[in-house]
N-acetyl-gamma-glutamyl-phosphate reductase (Alkanindiges hydrocarboniclasticus), 350 residues
Amino acid sequence: MISVGIVGGTGYTGVELVRILLRHPHVQIKALTSRTEAGMRVDAMFPSLRGLTDLEFSNVDQDVLNQCDVVFFATPHGVAMKQARDLVEAGVKVIDLAADFRLKNTAEFEKWYGMPHACPDLLAESVYGLPEINREAIKAARIIGNPGCYPTTVQLGLLPLLKAQEQLVQFDTLIVDAKSGVSGAGRKAETSLLFSEASDNFKAYGVKGHRHHPEIVQGLDAMGQQKGWFDQMIFVPHLVPMIRGMFTTMYLKLTEQGKQTDLQTLFETAYANEFFVDVMPAGSLPETRSVRGANQLRIALYRPNDGDTLVILVVQDNLVKGASGQAVQNMNLMFGLPETTGLEVVPLLP
């Protein structure tokens, strides 16, 4: 059994980890921490877990965490990097669902997250946890920076184009129009997240600049054949009045070669062996409810009026493939388990 610790168990990504791992056949949750709710039963805060666990939240105990095989950090940015060294030195693997180990450039991290990085040497060895791209590196990693939700949709939506032998689109024309449910902002008391503020409302945010922008550019540059392709990328996130779900629409101009290429077949071939990425049939319209509660990402392609614009539609559950499910996918790889273990969940409908 894999002995698991979860630091920060009271947020949405924390309880999502618990929900998934309680049904994982090779996992035992040894520690579930909360500095503010120590001593409270987990099912008292989250009644959906009644009858499934007797776990209680506990204070952070480094000795207990050091005895785990892997520790997930479902905490605000800046927490994991302060504890990672002790854990790694004790032989514990670390999977951080925040941003501490995503951006390789420490200056970029400090710019966007407003704090110095506590362990740049560990950042240098960390692996970006997008399995469909970094599978082999993840298997050997000690530290995983779990991707952000928006970056997951963008990178997987563009991967087949970046891996194509010829340039099929003009990458410098990329426009990313992305929407997320309110759970993406976390479980916190904030005026903009109140029901009367978020319900019956639809708004853009981070238009001047969003912290996922440099993460997206870093990932796309690493996959591409030429640096600087994405410097002019326009990324606009929106908050929509739903709890779960993410819908990312991307627009790119096709090259002459791209207009002659069967892009549907290109994408289907690229993801033929990826359980968690579904390239939908031509003419399909993906919906966020089709992935609710599951570690699934669905992609559809359009070329309106057979013109020179490619439209890529991507949906996922921001809390699962966009966060906790992907983290468990990474854990499975790190411990030599089938990648789908504990994650073969049928989406909820309606």
User: Anything to note?
Assistant: The chain has two domains: 2-125, 150-318. DSSP finds 13 helices and 13 strands in the chain. The radius of gyration is 20 Å.
